[in-house]
Amino acid sequence: MIVQRPAWMSAGLALLLSAAGAAGQGTFQNLDFEHPLLPLNPVNFKVPIANALPGWTGYIGSGQAGVSPHY
Fold this sequence. Notes:
Blueprint: H1 4-23, E1 46-48, H2 49-52, E2 58-60, E3 63-65, E4 67-69
């Protein structure tokens, strides 16, 4: 019986933690990343941020980025 006790405790702990993680997801908000302004004509695998992510501003570190990688 002593050998089976840790497995039972591990299964109970996993069940408890999985239920707690599922409750904290909150509400869904669509960020509209799937609606770029077409056509995207990449130059050196880069497109303007305004076309790739309309309504968003891109940053590299603390500086504003003008282009986004497009592969």
